[in-house]
Amino acid sequence: MSTDDATAGYPAPLAGKHGLVLGLADDQSIAWGCLELAQRQGAKLIATCLNDKIRSRVAPLAEALDISLVNCNVENPEELEAVLCFASEKLGALDFVIHSIAWAGAADLGGRIVDSSSEGFCRAMTISCHSFAQLARWSAPLMSQGGAIIAMSYLGAERVVANYSVMGPIKAALESLVRYVAVELGPQAIRVNAVSPGPIPTRAASGIREFDAILEHARQKSPLSRLVTLEEIAGLTLFLCSATASGITGQTIYVDAGCSVMA
User: Fold this and answer.
1) Are 37 and 241 in contact (CB under 8 A)?
2) CATH number for the domain including 130?
3) What are phi and psi of 68, to 5 degrees?
4) Dihedral over alpha carbons 125, 126, 130, 136 (to 10 degrees)
5) Which tens digit of pLDDT belongs to each residue from 211-234?
6) Measured on CA atoms in the order 111, 117, 118, 120, is the torsion positive or negative?
């Protein structure tokens, strides 16, 4: 029996829910996987992309799903605030928000952390980590009935991953931020979690030096002897956004074919 047959007659997990997904870059991005699955599960959605250049590339994707697409550079707090105002006007409320944004300059990402520039490190922290705190602050008022806010992390937050450099400490800070925000927003029935996917060949990941070697190492190391898929990452993310995960908050949950359990 197929999955479709098994779920026939059951309501879509996110039917009637309203969601915002930040970080659409192309059809290989985690944001796209989440948007595509959320739309199939019945959610009404708004997506963001960085700027007009990327918008020209991803607009057809948004149109294919019939979702609104808004530019948002999280380095500019006014743009992020404007996105939440648009979400309020367009959807009325939010049930879930997915933050799928990370950035580090090529020089800092490819070099030693001890050689990283203060400016580059701070900019990477602002985009990849502090923007999540701002997102949570402006999303919370739109979640009067509770909701879920999700960040995207990586194993490099917990262990040293070759060539991940400054992003390791920044993702570690993001995971800590998730825990603190979960405690702060818990009284409002807002759950806050991080998803930690295994490496997949996204445009953003391609900036990591010798990334093909990281992929091959993960494939060989994982108990399932393979890489995780975009669909599996989206599946876990949207599970955490659904009522089924109503008791889960403040957690970092891996979806990496088991790679993170190996020494």
Assistant:
1) no
2) 3.40.50.720
3) -75, 140
4) -140
5) 888 899 999 999 999 999 999 999
6) negative
Which single residue is written with the structure tokens 């806050």?
192
Cite the DSSP H helix spans in the chain: 3-7, 30-40, 52-65, 77-91, 106-110, 118-125, 131-139, 167-185, 211-221, 230-241
CB 142 within 8 A of CB 95: no
Number of domains in the chain: 1
Residue with structure tokens 């009935």?
A: 145
> Is residue 261 included in any domain, yes or no?
no
Domain range for 227: 14-252
Check residue 210 and give its pLDDT.
83
Count CB neighbours of 106 within 10 A.
11
Q: For residue 31, what are the CA distances in angstroms to 7, 34, 64, 210, 217?
A: 25, 5, 15, 24, 24
4 part of a folded domain? no
- Write out the catalytic residue numbers: 154, 164
Instruction: State the residue for tokens 């996987």.
Output: 33
Q: Does residue 9 register a pLDDT over 80?
A: no
Question: What is the rounded (10 degree) CA torsion for 125, 61, 147, 122?
Answer: 0
Taking only the tens place, the pLDDT of each residue in 113-151 is 999 999 999 999 999 999 999 999 999 999 999 999 999
**3-class state of residue 57 by DSSP:** helix
Cα–Cα nearest to 141, from 89, 74, 94, 178: 94
Q: Is residue 258 part of a domain?
A: no
- What is the pTM (predicted TM-score) of this model? 0.94
Position 105 in a domain: yes
Q: Which of 105, 124, 95 is nearest to 188 (CA)?
A: 95
